[in-house]
């Protein structure tokens, strides 16, 4: 049976991020720990429970929020990887960028064989 995270259970979430009308509930502390963007944002805007994010797609944000809770990126295809990479750069989620770099290096090695 798959383990359900607190984020998936909606336990104690303190922020809702909105992208293209889709709502993503998350914990401020988790986002701030994983993202310089959110760390700075929450220092300035501590009381906003709803935040609209315009610089990323809902698919990319879904992957990145999942990454902040699981440290896993389940990406399929180069187009999806590029979109998640751009979002990770915009939101300054450095560990996701490092994970994508490792993925790209692994793919290059695999293709050379």
UniProtKB/TrEMBL annotation:
Domain of life of the source: Eukaryota
InterPro entries registered for this protein in UniProt: BTB/POZ_dom, SKP1/BTB/POZ_sf, ZnFinger_BTB_dom_contain
Positions of transmembrane segments: none
Single GO molecular function: DNA-binding transcription factor activity, RNA polymerase II-specific
Span of domain BTB: 13-77
One Pfam family recorded for the sequence: BTB
Protein name: BTB domain-containing protein
